[in-house]
Amino acid sequence: MIQEIARAKLNLALHVRHRRSDGYHALETLFAFVRDGDLLTLSDAETDRFAITGPFAATLQAESDNLVTRARDRFRLTFGDDRPCAILLDKRLPVASGIGGGSADAAAALRALATRAGVRHDDPDLLACANVLGSDVPACLLSRTAIGRGRGEDLVPVDGLGGVPALLVNPGVGVSTAAVFERWDGVDRGSIGSGDLLEVARSGRNDLEPPARSLAPAIDGVLAVLARQPRTHMVRMSGSGATCFALFEDAPACAAAAEAIRSAEPGWWCLETALI
Ligand code: C5P
Description:
By secondary structure, this protein is of the alpha+beta class. The protein is built from ten helices and ten strands. Helix 2 (67-79) runs parallel beside helix 3, helix 2 (67-79) packs antiparallel against helix 4 and helix 3 (102-117) runs antiparallel to helix 4.
């Protein structure tokens, strides 16, 4: 049995530079990952099986085409490993919420299958599988802080944010990534900075915030509540939303904010965690 955590991804900054001729958008983004995520378990089996459990299982089960089974099929095609397997996904993170979700699950499946087959996690063919599955899957395969360019797949790992307390908050609305990108206003507001990573993050933006907020006004409320919390380094939306996050100066401040938000907004999903 092999287990992999599909860690939640944050875009500490996400600068959209231009619309490409292939329909994707050229990005500059600072990816970071947190301790917590979905849990994927891979076991040998007589026939292929895929099951989803956990608090967000129901939303995903409705989808016929899951990124995890696509990752499994893509791995087989690439590496010729036809042994059947059982994959169990404990879905702990909200779906369609800007924190990786399906991309992280697909990447976790690739890592687990690679481990079983004796393939290195940095094998270029594994990275190629990730690339085909989605723009965020290569970053999730790496699951460490990195600057992403291109569609997000052109990655340069960076160090320096491990242990920073983070609070992730989702108001319970899903947003379509494609719809948010479609509403981007086309204005290039410039590249992300360089140097101290926290400063790069703080001085950056998420250019998808305005279009996401117009599609899901509940995001306004989440950002406002996070902005009122004491001792934050920064508050921002992640990816195409609707999950927003705050980074804190210390863990007690993060815990206090989590408690305040949970009691004020019991319907919101709230994860108290830390960057890795
Ligand atoms: O790559 P992925 O399938 O995850 O992307 C989902 C959608 O998000 C794409 O179909 C595209 O509309 C949009 N997207 C984009 N530019 C990116 C990444 C995603 O326009 N860099």
